# Entry
Amino acid sequence: MLKRTPLFETHQKLGAKLIDFGGWEMPLQYSGIMEEHKAVREAAGLFDISHMGEFSVSGRSAETFLNRILTNDVRKLQDGEGQYTQICNPDGGTIDDLYLYRLGKGIYTLVVNASRIDADADWFRRELARCEDGEREGVIFADDSSAWGALALQGPKAGECLKDALGQRPDNRGLLLGLESLEKNQLAVACWPGVEGQVIFSRTGYTGEDGFELLCSPAAVGQIWDAVLEAGASLGVKPCGLGARDTLRTEVCYPLYGHELDEATTPIEAGVGWSVALDKGDFIGRDVLVRQNEEGVDRRLIAFKMTGRSAPPRPGYPVWSVGDDAKRIGEVTSGTQSPSLGVGIGLGYISREFSSKGTSLEIEIRGRRAAAEVAPKPLYRPNTSE
Amino acid sequence: MSSNIPNDLKFASSHEWVRVEDGVATVGISDHAQAELTDLVFVELPEVGRSLKAGEQCAVVESVKTASDVYSPVSGEVAEVNKALEDNPGLANEDPFGQGWFFRVKLGAPEELDGLLSAEAYAAQIS
# Structure
């Protein structure tokens, strides 16, 4: 039996095409991937991300404990800030990639991939049990995934839409000003007028666009969903499914766990070494990551574009070098027709010697090879991008 | 999902349609199939002159999300392919039973048509 989010019936009513995504029955699309993708790039799109997992880690030693498990430096976070980070195994392989929020001193919320909730929770519990007494003192870990609903509102008009949805009223003024002033990776905790519980608003996302992610009570997620879509209708805001989420993140070259990242792949290989704080002191996986950072890696995650008329690249397609001595040099991990660019694009791991920008490649599609080229990341740069 | 299904067509259970005129079958994919696939971005059509057997995989259609095989509902030789569809695969979304046709086959075994589904039977299959 597939798991369902509190919005399942809403998706059905909207006529969504539903798929199995990591054990969850989730909307692939409503009106169509192209249309939804375009809405996010030009106006805004609303995604149900309630399947994602939420953990809380708190207590006096929470910072020290997290800093030993996560790759990024937890100490860089001030109250109300978030960061992208990973959990690695001792070999540097990625257990998961996630977002860490610091709500207050010693109070953290982690947002993890739906398919990894159990693996991550086991990992945290095991590491907590292995801690020295001094380090474990006062650290409370909880998997709160079922206690949270979550939405992502993404696109250049996300801020305007959110403001309209909250309603311009005297008692809202502080909240609206506060949300407007949030910078990327910052968050605020507030009530949504008329709905149960508190909402964490963070200026984060997975599309390359400006936008917000909202964590709220499962009982509140439907009301907020409806309010946002109603307020956003005149702005061109549309409900969006996982299909558009995938094309959007592929265009901006964000890794997806299970495609670009897994337990045999390090964050350095995946090109997200910027989120690994090698200088922060010891953490799980550090030795391997330091060595890879110094010596370089044999295979690298590259972005590519198809250069001629061809079918779109897909995950698993072989990548070949070009010329008389052409050989198989890697594999596509994500691929699609880019709705923004109108060409086939993808991500893949290939041997380092072929990974520089502009290198000609061939992608094997149903037994025939089609021309491609290593391209700079991101493949598409949104207007609002940093 | 509403699908309009012209009465003069025959269908394969794999969602291709056939329209026969003067011993030549025009083949495409149904409205239901294009709606399921959505947003078509690429088609690969058979070579003209290729000899096909009924049920043989002979074309590919790709949406943003997935690739799907297209099978010839009839046996015979490929007489013509829709070049306009290669340039604009969206034709199969917009006009699946008209401008969005895939290829034409000179019928090798016209009696095979009797084994295909009527519009009514196909409508029942997808309902």
The helical segments of chain B are 31-37, 83-87, 91-94, 119-126. Chain B is about 20% helix and 35% strand. Strands of chain B lie at 10-11, 16-21, 24-29, 40-44, 51-52, 57-63, 67-71, 76-81, 103-107, 117-118. The mean pLDDT of chain B is 94.
